[in-house]
Design brief:
Blueprint: H1 2-20, H2 22-38, H3 42-98, H4 106-125, H5 127-142, H6 148-195
Helix pairs in contact: 1-3, 2-3, 3-5, 3-6, 4-6, 5-6
Length: 196
Protein backbone atom coordinates (compact mmCIF):
# COMPACT_ATOMS: atom_id res chain seq x y z
CA UNK A 1 0.00 0.00 0.00
CA UNK A 2 2.81 2.38 0.86
CA UNK A 3 4.65 1.70 -2.40
CA UNK A 4 1.45 2.25 -4.42
CA UNK A 5 0.93 5.59 -2.67
CA UNK A 6 4.50 6.54 -3.52
CA UNK A 7 3.91 5.52 -7.14
CA UNK A 8 0.79 7.70 -7.18
CA UNK A 9 2.85 10.69 -6.04
CA UNK A 10 5.44 10.03 -8.74
CA UNK A 11 2.66 9.63 -11.28
CA UNK A 12 1.10 12.93 -10.23
CA UNK A 13 4.44 14.69 -10.74
CA UNK A 14 4.82 13.05 -14.16
CA UNK A 15 1.32 14.13 -15.15
CA UNK A 16 2.10 17.71 -14.16
CA UNK A 17 5.30 17.48 -16.21
CA UNK A 18 3.29 16.36 -19.26
CA UNK A 19 0.92 19.31 -18.86
CA UNK A 20 3.86 21.69 -18.43
CA UNK A 21 5.29 20.57 -21.79
CA UNK A 22 2.08 21.23 -23.74
CA UNK A 23 3.07 24.75 -24.71
CA UNK A 24 6.53 23.59 -25.80
CA UNK A 25 5.01 20.84 -27.98
CA UNK A 26 2.50 23.25 -29.54
CA UNK A 27 5.25 25.79 -30.23
CA UNK A 28 7.51 23.13 -31.75
CA UNK A 29 4.64 21.84 -33.91
CA UNK A 30 3.82 25.33 -35.14
CA UNK A 31 7.47 26.01 -36.01
CA UNK A 32 7.76 22.59 -37.67
CA UNK A 33 4.73 23.26 -39.91
CA UNK A 34 6.09 26.69 -40.86
CA UNK A 35 9.47 25.20 -41.66
CA UNK A 36 7.81 22.40 -43.67
CA UNK A 37 6.18 25.01 -45.92
CA UNK A 38 9.60 26.44 -46.85
CA UNK A 39 11.73 23.32 -46.91
CA UNK A 40 12.36 20.81 -49.67
CA UNK A 41 11.90 17.98 -47.19
CA UNK A 42 8.61 19.51 -46.02
CA UNK A 43 6.52 16.34 -46.38
CA UNK A 44 8.96 14.37 -44.22
CA UNK A 45 9.13 17.19 -41.69
CA UNK A 46 5.31 17.47 -41.52
CA UNK A 47 5.03 13.71 -40.92
CA UNK A 48 7.61 13.91 -38.18
CA UNK A 49 5.79 16.87 -36.52
CA UNK A 50 2.43 15.10 -36.79
CA UNK A 51 3.91 11.94 -35.31
CA UNK A 52 5.40 13.95 -32.42
CA UNK A 53 2.09 15.70 -31.72
CA UNK A 54 0.18 12.41 -31.92
CA UNK A 55 2.56 10.80 -29.43
CA UNK A 56 2.14 13.75 -27.08
CA UNK A 57 -1.65 13.59 -27.40
CA UNK A 58 -1.55 9.91 -26.35
CA UNK A 59 0.20 10.76 -23.07
CA UNK A 60 -2.87 12.03 -21.15
CA UNK A 61 -4.82 8.88 -22.03
CA UNK A 62 -1.93 6.65 -21.00
CA UNK A 63 -1.47 8.70 -17.82
CA UNK A 64 -5.17 8.37 -16.96
CA UNK A 65 -5.01 4.62 -17.55
CA UNK A 66 -1.94 4.37 -15.30
CA UNK A 67 -3.62 6.47 -12.60
CA UNK A 68 -6.74 4.29 -12.74
CA UNK A 69 -4.58 1.16 -12.32
CA UNK A 70 -2.67 2.68 -9.40
CA UNK A 71 -5.88 3.79 -7.67
CA UNK A 72 -7.35 0.32 -8.14
CA UNK A 73 -4.18 -1.21 -6.68
CA UNK A 74 -4.30 1.21 -3.73
CA UNK A 75 -7.95 0.27 -3.07
CA UNK A 76 -7.06 -3.41 -3.34
CA UNK A 77 -4.13 -3.21 -0.93
CA UNK A 78 -6.22 -1.15 1.52
CA UNK A 79 -8.89 -3.85 1.34
CA UNK A 80 -6.28 -6.54 1.97
CA UNK A 81 -5.08 -4.59 5.00
CA UNK A 82 -8.66 -4.21 6.29
CA UNK A 83 -9.36 -7.92 5.77
CA UNK A 84 -6.13 -8.85 7.58
CA UNK A 85 -6.99 -6.54 10.48
CA UNK A 86 -10.46 -8.05 10.81
CA UNK A 87 -9.06 -11.59 10.70
CA UNK A 88 -6.51 -10.65 13.38
CA UNK A 89 -9.28 -9.16 15.51
CA UNK A 90 -11.34 -12.36 15.18
CA UNK A 91 -8.26 -14.45 16.04
CA UNK A 92 -7.73 -12.31 19.14
CA UNK A 93 -11.35 -12.74 20.32
CA UNK A 94 -11.69 -16.45 19.54
CA UNK A 95 -10.06 -17.75 22.77
CA UNK A 96 -12.58 -15.79 24.84
CA UNK A 97 -15.50 -17.20 22.85
CA UNK A 98 -14.24 -20.79 22.86
CA UNK A 99 -13.10 -21.00 26.47
CA UNK A 100 -14.42 -24.05 28.28
CA UNK A 101 -13.98 -22.51 31.74
CA UNK A 102 -17.44 -22.04 33.23
CA UNK A 103 -16.32 -21.50 36.81
CA UNK A 104 -16.87 -23.49 40.01
CA UNK A 105 -19.06 -21.07 41.92
CA UNK A 106 -21.71 -18.43 41.41
CA UNK A 107 -19.14 -15.65 41.81
CA UNK A 108 -16.76 -17.21 39.27
CA UNK A 109 -19.55 -17.76 36.75
CA UNK A 110 -20.76 -14.19 37.29
CA UNK A 111 -17.23 -12.86 36.67
CA UNK A 112 -16.91 -14.98 33.50
CA UNK A 113 -20.39 -13.90 32.34
CA UNK A 114 -19.37 -10.23 32.71
CA UNK A 115 -16.26 -10.88 30.61
CA UNK A 116 -18.43 -12.60 28.02
CA UNK A 117 -20.88 -9.69 28.02
CA UNK A 118 -17.92 -7.42 27.28
CA UNK A 119 -16.95 -9.71 24.38
CA UNK A 120 -20.50 -9.58 23.00
CA UNK A 121 -20.52 -5.78 23.30
CA UNK A 122 -17.17 -5.71 21.50
CA UNK A 123 -18.63 -7.88 18.72
CA UNK A 124 -21.62 -5.55 18.45
CA UNK A 125 -19.50 -2.39 18.40
CA UNK A 126 -17.24 -3.91 15.73
CA UNK A 127 -20.15 -4.38 13.30
CA UNK A 128 -19.68 -1.01 11.51
CA UNK A 129 -16.07 -1.91 10.65
CA UNK A 130 -17.16 -5.28 9.33
CA UNK A 131 -19.96 -3.62 7.34
CA UNK A 132 -17.45 -1.21 5.81
CA UNK A 133 -15.30 -4.13 4.67
CA UNK A 134 -18.40 -5.84 3.25
CA UNK A 135 -19.28 -2.74 1.20
CA UNK A 136 -15.72 -2.42 -0.08
CA UNK A 137 -15.64 -6.09 -1.08
CA UNK A 138 -18.96 -5.78 -2.91
CA UNK A 139 -17.70 -2.69 -4.77
CA UNK A 140 -14.46 -4.43 -5.71
CA UNK A 141 -16.30 -7.53 -6.95
CA UNK A 142 -18.79 -5.40 -8.91
CA UNK A 143 -15.92 -3.72 -10.76
CA UNK A 144 -14.58 -7.17 -11.66
CA UNK A 145 -11.09 -6.26 -10.60
CA UNK A 146 -8.07 -8.24 -11.76
CA UNK A 147 -7.91 -9.61 -8.22
CA UNK A 148 -11.60 -10.53 -7.86
CA UNK A 149 -10.89 -14.21 -7.23
CA UNK A 150 -8.43 -13.43 -4.44
CA UNK A 151 -10.78 -10.85 -2.92
CA UNK A 152 -13.66 -13.35 -3.05
CA UNK A 153 -11.52 -16.05 -1.35
CA UNK A 154 -10.24 -13.75 1.39
CA UNK A 155 -13.72 -12.36 1.96
CA UNK A 156 -15.12 -15.87 2.29
CA UNK A 157 -12.40 -16.69 4.80
CA UNK A 158 -13.40 -13.62 6.84
CA UNK A 159 -17.09 -14.53 6.71
CA UNK A 160 -16.38 -18.12 7.76
CA UNK A 161 -14.21 -17.08 10.70
CA UNK A 162 -16.68 -14.41 11.75
CA UNK A 163 -19.53 -16.94 11.72
CA UNK A 164 -17.38 -19.32 13.75
CA UNK A 165 -16.73 -16.55 16.30
CA UNK A 166 -20.40 -15.58 16.53
CA UNK A 167 -21.48 -19.22 16.90
CA UNK A 168 -18.83 -19.84 19.56
CA UNK A 169 -19.90 -16.70 21.40
CA UNK A 170 -23.54 -17.83 21.39
CA UNK A 171 -22.56 -21.30 22.67
CA UNK A 172 -20.39 -19.72 25.37
CA UNK A 173 -23.27 -17.48 26.50
CA UNK A 174 -25.54 -20.53 26.76
CA UNK A 175 -22.88 -22.52 28.70
CA UNK A 176 -22.39 -19.67 31.16
CA UNK A 177 -26.15 -19.27 31.59
CA UNK A 178 -26.50 -22.99 32.33
CA UNK A 179 -23.49 -22.92 34.68
CA UNK A 180 -24.99 -19.98 36.58
CA UNK A 181 -28.29 -21.83 36.95
CA UNK A 182 -26.45 -24.94 38.14
CA UNK A 183 -24.19 -23.15 40.63
CA UNK A 184 -27.08 -21.03 41.91
CA UNK A 185 -29.12 -24.19 42.49
CA UNK A 186 -26.13 -25.90 44.14
CA UNK A 187 -25.56 -22.88 46.42
CA UNK A 188 -29.25 -22.81 47.35
CA UNK A 189 -29.21 -26.57 47.92
CA UNK A 190 -26.09 -26.33 50.10
CA UNK A 191 -27.68 -23.53 52.11
CA UNK A 192 -30.87 -25.55 52.55
CA UNK A 193 -28.86 -28.66 53.46
CA UNK A 194 -26.98 -26.67 56.10
CA UNK A 195 -30.28 -25.40 57.54
CA UNK A 196 -31.67 -28.93 57.73
Amino acid sequence: LVSVKQLLKVHEATTLDVVAHREQVEELAHLGHELAEKNLRGKELRQRVDKLVARYEELPHAAQHRQDNLLEAADLFQLYRDLDEELAWIHEKMPLATSSDVGNSVSEVTRLAKRHTTLEADLKSHEPLLDKVEVTVRDMLTKESFASATVRDRHQQLRTKLKTLRDASARRAKQLEQALELHTWMADAAELDAWL
